[in-house]
Amino acid sequence: MFKTHYKLERNSVALALGIIVVSGIGGLVEIAPLFTIDETVEETQDMRTYTPLELMGRNIYISEGCYACHSQMVRTLRNEVERYGPYSLAVESKYDHPHLWGSKRTGPDLARVGAKYSDAWHVAHLINPRDVVPTSIMPKYGWLAKTPLEMKDLSLHLKAQQRVGVPYTDEQVENATADAYAQATPESAGQDGVLERYGEATNVRAFDGDPKTVTQMDALVAYLQIIGQLTQVPYADNNSEKKGE
């Protein structure tokens, strides 16, 4: 076997052809499934995009490395759906760039964490995880509640998402900063605009408990509360029946 390999290495043409063949096989394995992507991703009418505040929270989630310990993909295994909830569907990651499915679970999977706990619980957990989960080994993120959220370039973030296929409208891009501020300050004049552009079910409240400021804590909690809630398809009766099979 090794002699054959050595002969192949000495023949540059044969080696080049071998590399092309192996690369072609690898490329085919990766590319072929894309031709059936329309059959893989479920159809849903209620799927919405992240609001600017939620998108910034997702960016903070990524920048703080939360994805390294928490996955966001409930598999179809019985023990997983019993612990976390309905198994994840492809459509739920439709607007995720990058996706955060993950495979490392130092902490629990978060695919169904949205609306599971109160905002106050999330804030307390992020400030000091041991206050709510005594056995937690999660680091503290208390500074998020003291750090103002940078919102000046929010329109650019939405434009970048537009480039990769997320259907943000020009109106949403133009109002990104105002919408982020309004979502975390429920008594502000822009609340109606947020609901009009992102739907009546959009969470509008002071996520960190302080309606006077918009902090990174607001953004992260807003994101955590929407994980698994962008569409209600996974919670439909037909999916629950599949889960129990």
Account of the protein in words:
The radius of gyration is 22 Å and the shape is globular. The mean pLDDT is about 90. By secondary structure, the protein is an all-alpha fold. The chain is built from twelve helices and no strands. α4 (about 50-65) crosses α11 (about 215-225) and α6 (about 120-125) crosses α11 (about 215-225). It has helices at about 1-10, 10-30, 35-40, 50-65, 80-85, 120-125, 155-165, 170-175, 175-185, 190-200, 215-225, 235-245.
Chart the SSEs and their pairings.
Layout: H1 2-10, H2 12-31, H3 37-40, H4 52-63, H5 78-84, H6 119-127, H7 154-163, H8 170-174, H9 176-184, H10 191-198, H11 216-226, H12 237-244
Low-confidence stretches: none
SS-based structural class? mainly alpha
Averaged pLDDT: 91
Biggest sheet statistics: none
The helix fraction, in percent, is 40-55%
Give the strand content. Answer: under 5%
Count the DSSP helices.
12
Q: What would you call the shape?
A: globular
Distance between the termini: 48 Å
Question: What is the helix/strand order?
Answer: HHHHHHHHHHHH
Quantity of strands, as a count? 0
Radius of gyration: 22 Å
Q: Which characteristics define this entry?
A:
245 residues; 0% strand; mainly alpha
Write a brief structural summary.
By secondary structure, the protein is mainly alpha-helical.
